[in-house]
Amino acid sequence: MLLSLPILIFTALGAIASPVTSPKTLHSKRIASPSWNAHRRLEPHHTLPLKIGLTQSNIDSLPSLLSSVSDPLSPTYGQHYTPSEIASIFAPSDESIGAVKSWLHSEGIHPSRIRLSDTKAFLSFEASVEEAERLLETEYHIFKHEDGSENVGCHEFSVPEHLVPHIDLITPTINVARMTTRQPEALKKRGIFTPASASSLMLLPKTNGELANADAVSPTSTATCDQFITPACLRALYQITRKPTETKRNTLGVVELTPQSFLQGDLDLFFRNFSPSTMGEKPILVSIDGGVPSLNATAGFNINGESDLDLQVTMSLTSPQPVQLYQTGDNIEGGSFNNYLDALDGTFCTFEGGDNPNFDGIYPDPAPGGFKGPESCGIVKPANVISVSYSGDESTFPASYQQRECAEFGKLGMMGVSVLYSSGDSGVGGRNGRCLTANGTESVNGTRFSPMFPLGCPFVTAVGATQVNPNATVHDPESACMQVIFSGGGFSNVFEIPSYQEKAVNNWFREFPPPFTSAQFNNTRKARAYPDISANGANYVIAVDGSFFLVFGTSASTPTFASILTLINDARLSIGKRPVGFINPVLYSDLFEGAFHDVTSGTNPGCGTPGFSAVKGWDPVTGLGTPNFDEMVARWLILP
Fold this sequence. Notes:
Blueprint: E1 24-29, E2 36-41, E3 47-54, H1 62-70, H2 83-90, H3 94-106, E4 115-116, E5 122-128, H4 129-136, E6 140-145, E7 150-154, E8 156-160, E9 167-171, E10 177-179, H5 185-190, E11 206-210, H6 231-238, E12 252-257, H7 264-274, E13 284-288, H8 301-318, E14 323-328, H9 337-344, E15 385-388, E16 392-393, H10 399-414, E17 418-422, E18 435-436, E19 442-443, E20 452-453, E21 461-467, E22 479-480, E23 490-496, H11 499-511, E24 527-530, E25 533-536, E26 540-544, E27 547-552, H12 554-574, H13 584-587, E28 596-597, E29 626-627, H14 629-638
Parallel strand pairs: 12-14, 12-15, 13-14, 15-17, 17-21, 21-25
Antiparallel strand pairs: 1-8, 2-6, 3-5, 3-9, 4-5, 6-7, 7-10, 11-27, 16-20, 18-19, 21-22, 23-24, 26-27, 28-29
Helix pairs in contact: 1-10, 7-8, 8-12, 12-14
Organism: Sistotremastrum niveocremeum HHB9708
Cofactor: Ca(2+)
Signal peptide: 1-17
C-alpha cells in the first residue's frame, strides 16, 4: 500500500516543490554469491546509467484479477483482459512519480537530466559514481566473476524512508551490470557497462550419448517406449488423438535463448524418420533483439540440443499447427526471460521491471557484431501457449527481480496466455548439484534444498518429468524420472502458496509428512510448491547435428505438455470458445479430479538426501501427475 504524501505542485517552468524529507533507510541488500567477489572500488568520475523502477499500482490485486478469469467457479472465467486494460490498471501513480522526482531534485539532480519512460514506470538519468554513492549512501565496486568477467554494482543501497513504498528497484545497484571484454574501449572509459548472456538461465537437456541404432527404432510401434520415446509413444502414453483444425486462429510459442538454436537439417532428419507428415515444415521465426537460427551444424549438443528438442517435439505432436520460435538475443549478449517478455508486451520494456544488466541483454548492443536495431518491444502478440525449457536457481536472483517478472507472467495470464516452465533436472538441488548453506548462499557442500526460478512464481505452470520404467509398457504407470536426471520439485523461499494450491499441498503434508526439517526446506506450509503437473522426460530420440541422441530432462516434458495444451485450445476454438489461459486454478479444482495419471513411485534426490517421494495425489516430484488428454479436453470443453 502506498503511503499518503502531500500533493506536489509543479510550476509552468518545471520547478519542483519543496520535497518531503525523511531519514534514509536500507532499501535492498545484495545476495552473496560464491561466484562473484568485490575486486576494486569504481573510480568516482565514471558515469552510471541509473534507472529507478517505480512501484506499480494495484499490484496486490493481481492474484484476484487473474483468478477472476482463470478460476472455473468464477462467473467471468475466460473473459480475458486486453493489454491496454492491464497497462491502465497497473501504471505507477502520479504520487510515486512526483515524490521520487522531488527527492532527486533535492539531491542536486536537475529535472532536465531526468527522463520519465512512456509508461511512467522508470525515471532514468546519468550520474557520476560520486553522485550515485552520495544519493544512495553506498559504494560502487567492480565485481569479478570466477570466469574472469567483471561487473559493477554495490553491496546495498538506501533511500529516504518515505520513498520505500514508491521505489521497486534501482539499477545498477545490487543487480550488478556486467562489463565484458567484448566492449569497445570507449564504452569502458565512459563507465557504461553492457551485460553478458543470461547463462544462469540455461537448463540444458542431458544425453547419455549418440544413438548408434536409430534406424532400428520404429516410428509407429510402442513396443520399445521404455527405451526410446518417439511421438508415437507420447500419443499412446497420454491418449493424444486430436489433429488440429484451427491452425489459423491457434498459436504455440517456444522460447529459445541464444546461443541455443536449432538446425533445419536436424528437424528434417527427425521428421523423415518419426513424423513424415511434418516434413518440410519450419518454425515461424520471431527474431527478438537480433536472434537468428544457427548455421553451425557442428556446434554440438550443448548448443543445438535444446532447440532441436523443443521444436521436434512440439511440431511433430501438433502438426500442421504452426509453431512460433521466440529466438531471443544476439550472439554477443544472448537473451533472458525479460528480453522475450519485452517482445510480447511493449509496456514491459520499462513498465514492469525492464531489463536488468546483470541478467538480461541490453539492446541496442554496441559491441562488434552486436544487434544494432532498437530493443524488441511489443513486436509480437503472445502465443496462446508459451513453452520455456529454461530456469535458474532462485537463490541467485534478488527477490525484487523475481517478483516483478512474476507479475508479468500474471498479466500474461490475465490476457489468456498459458506460460509453462521446466521444473529442473537436479531433484531438490540447484543447477550443477549446488544446494544452499544456512545463510542462503549456494555451495557444493550445501545441505538445504535449492528451489528454481521462476518455478516458484504462482502464475506459471511448472512441469516435472516422468519415465516409462525399464521393461514396462505405455499402458503401465510411469514413475518419477530417475534416469540421467531427477525431476525438479520443492518449495519456494520467495513466493507464498497460492490459494488454488492450498488444499492439495496441505493434504500432502498431512498424509505424507516428509522426513526433512526446516533446516532443509521451507516447510512452513505457506510457500508456493512445484511442479504442478508432469510428462515424460526420459529417452527421447532427437536429431542433433545430423545424428540421433537419447535425450533426458524437463526440457522434454515441458514442450510435450505445451503441445497437449495447444491441442486442447484447438478443440475449444473449434466450438467458438477461447483458449484456456492460465490453467493452474483449473488443474487443482474438483472439476479435474481424475483427469490425470497419478504417479506414485520414484523420488527426486539432491542435497545429500533421497529427496521427496512421488505419492498418491499431488507431490513435489511429479505434481498432480501426467495428462490424460481425453479426460482433460472433455472437461475443458464444459467450461465457458
